[in-house]
Amino acid sequence: MGGKGAPKTREQSVAEDPKWELSILANVNGFYKKLLHDYLQGDLPIHPELDDDAIHQADVDLRETLDKMHRWLHLLDMAITPAMVRQSLTADTDPELAEALLRYYTRKLDYTETDRDKTDLVATFLYRHPRVPGQWERRGYGLDGSLPLSPFEIALIEILADADGPMLPEEHVQLLREFDPLREQIEGYGSFNSLIDSGVMPRVRELKQSFGRSFYHPGVLATIAAYNVAFGAKFDGLFHGAIKEIKDFAHAVDELGGSILSNIDGIDVTVEHVRAMQEAELMKIDYVEALDKFRRVSKLKKEIDKRPNIKRAAQAVPARSGGRAAAGAKMAPATPRAFVKPHVTPQQLSLEEAKLRRVEESIRIFVRVADPKFRGVVPMRFFNLTLTPSEVDAYIGDYLQESSPRAEVARILLRNVAVTARIHTELEEMRRCQPATSLWKLRADSLVVLLDVARAAYDNSKKLEHSADVQISMEKLRHLAEVVVKALAA
Fold first, then answer.
1. Which of 391, 407, 408 is nearest to 399 (CA)?
2. Are residues 43 and 185 located together in one domain of the fold?
3. Which one of 16, 93, 102, 183 has the largest count of C-beta atoms within 10 Å of its C-beta?
4. Are 6 and 31 in a shared domain?
5. pLDDT averaged over consecutive 10-residue blocks of the chain (490 residues)?
6. Is 302 in contact with 455 (CB distance < 8 Å)?
């Protein structure tokens, strides 16, 4: 599941598809510009060769522009803290933008601790805001009791499929196994004080740092994002409960004519201090500063818990007022000339073949370990991929390397399923882009390549079209090719 080969230089990593790389960086640049505009309450000066109009000119030198954009974003990265990213990712943020940020952070070769924190925040945002409510929770169980890849990890594999990911050594697999017990542990805490005193927060911080480059592996990101959401829900409930009790106590002291609640670290905490507490602001600040403030809240809560007499006395004082065709049919007509490139390059086919291999492998892993009742429906990022019983059998079969008719049928089915899944994904990605924009054109180019791949797969299937299973698979592929042509011509 890890990356392969020697590490790439930045130039090698962007040489494969510079247009796609530039579109990612342009999205990140737009996000950073808006973030800093809001923070500085004014526009940020930008290099004239890096504005949207300049980078989309036909005669632009992509490699030179990419190099400039990388340097520019590296500068902005030093100015933007994880807390600023957290505040800018709201429920209204477009998931496309969050996915671009995730691609950007995971592709960085000179990553920093703050880059890891920002990646952590973006992955958690994508987990917390699925496109389909509840889609990350749907998963079956393997016959041996093991869990298949989670739907969210499959989604991350798709999002990050354009670049080789890091390796995941065995010691880091062992580290991942610590998160489930930690989730169970935090569920057992009934108070904010017990959660803070447990040391779970610094322990998880230490675990995240221990992964190094492996932190950017889809499996690690998926595990950590799920943990973050579970921890966040527990923390928020206990934190707000503690703040409420502190404020209630301060109100009681005030009603009794007092002003000092307690002395913490040699400083008197007064009613006015508590009134000035802003829970929302505490949740926005950076980790180190936030943890220190949360500990102070915990200390204050402990001190208040020692004073039941004042709370009982306050209860006696009145409150102040106011307050989702036929088999063997021919392939779809050729794509209209206006939407077809003169030819599909070997480089484009090579890039697409890499994506198809990743998709086929992720589906294979899911089907082989999933409960038989669930393995026919594979959760993808935007949709559920439905497999026929014959396709399921092909994925779990151990005869694919044979020189036999059944093995040849199985290989054809696997290929057609992977092509179908990739087309569905690119179609949905294109539907989510504004027509005629650079992102829309990139998705359209990918679909043109996939049409070429689908035609080759269809022609390869013809030699076994006497098989009913292959006929059904060919029909699905033909129908989907028609959908692509109509979408491109729309």
1. 407
2. no
3. 102
4. yes
5. 40 59 89 90 77 64 85 91 91 91 89 91 94 72 54 90 82 92 91 89 92 92 94 89 81 66 69 74 63 77 62 41 38 37 73 90 87 87 90 89 90 94 91 73 85 89 89 90 80
6. no
Q: What confidence score (pLDDT) does residue 380 get?
A: 87
The 10s digit of each residue's pLDDT in 207-264 is: 999 999 999 999 999 999 999 999 999 988 988 888 888 888 777 767 656 666 666 6
397/481 Cα distance (integer angstroms)? 28
pTM, entire model: 0.66
141 within some domain? no
Answer whether 193's CB lies under 8 Å from 32's CB: no
- Does the residue 378 lie in any domain? yes
User: Rounded to an integer, what distance in angstroms lies between the CA atom of residue 352 and that of residue 349?
Assistant: 5
Least Cα distance to 447 among 464, 426, 433 occurs for 426
The string of pLDDT tens digits covering residues 394-423 is 998 888 888 899 999 999 999 999 999 999
Q: Which residues contact 89 (CB under 8 A, 6 or more apart)?
A: 98, 121, 122, 125
Whether residues 287 and 351 share a domain: the answer is: no
Cα gap 94→39, rounded to integer Å = 20
Question: Based on the number of CB atoms within 10 Å of its own CB, is 134 exposed (0-12), middle (13-18) or buried (19 or more)?
Answer: exposed
The letter for the amino acid at 138 is: R
Q: How far is residue 77 from each of residues 63, 171, 192, 419, measured CA to CA in Å?
A: 21, 30, 34, 37
Domain containing residue 19: 1-128
In sequence order, the 6+-apart residues with CB closer than 8 A to the CB of 107 are: 13, 21, 24, 163
- 387 and 473 in a single domain? The answer is yes
